[in-house]
From TrEMBL:
A Pfam family hit: PhoD
InterPro entries linked to this entry: PhoD-like_MPP (IPR018946), PhoD-like_sf (IPR038607), Phospholipid_Metab_Enz (IPR052900)
Alphabetized UniProt keyword annotations: Signal
Keyword Signal applies: yes
Protein name: PhoD-like phosphatase metallophosphatase domain-containing protein
Gene3D superfamilies: PhoD-like phosphatase
Signal peptide annotation: 1-20
Ranges where the PhoD-like phosphatase metallophosphatase domain occurs: 18-124
Organism: Imshaugia aleurites
């Protein structure tokens, strides 16, 4: 008896066929947009255990996947997760998933994609709090995919080597809490003590 639920088994079969088609036909420049996991991440898109992949350079990747939270959804690790606990979980996810380049589990927010013939840019934003309605956002991370590269750009690591929160493979997290009031355009340091995200 198969231990996987039928839906998961069907999904795995479909993914296997999709990856085989992409790799067998050298179809590149693939961008996958994901959600509903309540987590932010940026990852190289690889066919696990089927094709060689170098997480340092991105060689072997067939595209990139960007995933985002929603403004009102809780973290997958719980509604009242602390920043420290969320970042510890992100560290483990990045450590144990060689293709995962960035994980961020604390902030609720969104990402914007700018798409041109030359590149795709993903800019992630988080809300300091969603307990009350406000126009505030923190820039969490920015990623670039060059046309034909099929992987996140590394300078020396994705995101330019620095993100505001979460865990970045081969990079670092520098928390500034620099917050943009999108209604006025004024930046300030957010120190909202509300943990209930």
């Amino acid at each position: 008896m198969n231990p996987l639920p039928m839906g998961m088994l069907i999904l795995l079969i479909m993914m296997h066929g999709t990856f085989q088609t992409l790799y067998d036909n050298s179809i590149g420049n693939n961008i996958v947009i994901s959600g509903d996991s309540h987590a932010n991440w940026a990852t190289d898109l690889i066919w696990l255990d089927e094709h060689a992949y170098d997480p340092t350079t991105g060689n072997g990747s067939i595209g990139v996947e960007f995933a985002g939270t929603a403004v009102s959804s809780p973290s997958p690790y719980g509604q009242n997760i602390s920043l420290a606990t969320a970042n510890e979980a992100s560290d483990l996810l990045v450590q144990y998933n060689r293709e995962l380049q960035w994980s961020e589990l604390y902030y609720r927010g969104y990402f914007e994609l700018q798409i041109s013939h030359e590149l795709v840019e993903a800019n992630y934003f988080g809300m300091p709090t969603i307990v009350n309605r406000n126009p505030d956002e923190i820039s969490l991370a920015n990623f670039t995919v060059l046309s034909g590269a099929n992987a996140l750009q590394r300078n020396p690591s994705p995101g330019g080597g620095i993100v505001e929160n979460g865990a970045l493979k081969l990079g670092k997290t520098v928390q500034t809490n620099s917050t943009n009031d999108t209604a006025t355009g004024i930046y300030f340091i957010s120190n909202d003590p509300v943990e209930d995200l």
